[in-house]
Predict the structure.
Amino acid sequence: MHKILVIKFGGTSVGSAEAMQQVVSQIQIARQKWSQLVVVISAVSGVTDLLLSGARLASLGDEEGAYKVAHELDAKHRRIICELLQSTKEKQFVESRLDTHIQEFRSLCHAIYVLGEASPRALDAVSSLGERISVHILAARLRETHCDARSVLSSTLIRTDSYFQAANPDMDMTRELSRTHLLPMLEQQIVPIVTGFIGSTESGAITTLGRGGSDYSAGILAVALEASELWICTDVDGVMTTDPRIASNAKTLGTIAHNEIVELASAGAQVVHPKAIGVVMNHNIDLWIRNTFNPEGSATQVLPVIDVSTTQKRRAKAVTAVRSQSLIMLEGRGMLGVQGIAARTFDAAARVSANVTLIAQTSSEQSILFAVPSIVASKVVLELEREFYREFEWNDIEAVKVQDNVVIVTVIGSGLFATSEFVGRLFTALGEKNVDVLSISQGTTGGSISVVVSKADTENSVRAIHELIVGMA
Ligand code: ADP
Ligand code: ASP
Ligand code: MG
């Protein structure tokens, strides 16, 4: 049996003709070692945002604005096609695909404009267009360089539920579909260039796996095809001690355990989607995070799960931040010892689909504090007021308070927080920068600690903690 490599290239990696050419070189190099190669790609960088902005304008009644976006999308892709492709035949083919998709975008925007609203299903149809265009460009360029490449729509491979905008794969069906479509291609040495981000329901409606979901698509396909390796290729040298955009002295982590990278990705480090890690975990697939633009440079290998409570190597590894959060506090003396308040609180949050990102509660149970993305905060407050209207009347609960513009800063590192030393240094470092810590929470396995700070303190907090991490390495 041949070994399969799945490589995923993100938006920046396919963001210009020059970048796409770099991707082509990487694929050619990988082909020398791997006879069976599946490539998953994102939309050209910025395109998914543009598509969604067009749909939003149309839903607000600005059809002209949406058509301007169509023009911009067309020009952006046409520029890459002109600079990258040389053969008239390939150019004409890809341009005809582009025309079709831009027309589809205009029709969808018109429908949204007429209806005056964009449903999650319509948004998925719109936002999937970026990947549906980019695969044609890359496959055409590969064919020009004598690589037998074929663009593949992942809606024919990844079967999902109908939870539009964050759909979940049906792994059994996906396995069957992917193997039926892709294995015969691989046996003929064809390189499938697969759209990231997209799936489809049983009835054929296009779904997306959530923003940044191309990593997840690559993980799903790696599992379905029983691949030996999965490479997530991006625009930095692997997983680093922090986002290099915040601290220029960030360093690549040579290795990171599955559970550590899941914590890091879930806590806001954009470098890889947490669901991509979740799906490949326990599947015996070697996972690497690499830099498309620096293939010989440092990279990160993701190692099996380590037991963070017993590990001897206690070290803070990385720090990250989740932005645009709100803190919600429920307080009242009548809450003391009353059973079920916490359950009712989080039930109310779940009813409005709010993802609770941090929880803290005092032992006296007189207050519950939690964080949610700011975008849903007002809905949560309304739902809490509805849920506890009796307790408000009786003054058992005095107030639901909200603090917007907060950020959750999380440090990850195996077993680290079993040692009090780091925790002490952490708060000293924040204190020295005059950062007010609004709340604290520790991961249950001792692999992470989070502090909530105000938005204005984000960079200062991340840099202060990062200095500690780099100093301890
Ligand atoms: P892609 O388009 O390839 O999926 P993303 O933009 O989604 O790439 O993710 C890569 C970006 O993640 C990097 O450019 C970097 O700024 C950011 N990032 C945030 N935290 C980290 C981290 N700890 N290590 C590496 N990159 C990080
Ligand atoms: N293009 C999609 C996004 O921008 C998916 C991805 O890039 O991973 O969210
Ligand atoms: Mg990404």
Notes: The domain at 4-235 is CATH 3.40.1160.10 (Carbamate kinase). The mean pLDDT is 93. Residues 10-13, 42, 212, 234-236, 239-240, 242-245, 269-271, 318, 320 surround adenosine-5'-diphosphate (ligand 1) (CB under 6 Å).
